[in-house]
Amino acid sequence: MLHPTGMDWDVIAMWGSLAGLMACGVAAWEWLEARAEARRRTERMLRRPR
Length: 50
What we know:
By secondary structure, the chain is mainly alpha-helical. Helices cover 84% and strands 0% of the residues.
């Protein structure tokens, strides 16, 4: 069985970090979109004639 060398671990860590950063970015974007949608929904409710 082959064992990863030090440089292999660097590459693995780099890709893992990149994947983690991308996941955090996507989660932040989804959170911002959800807040904006909630604000739009509230504004629509308040503008609706009674």
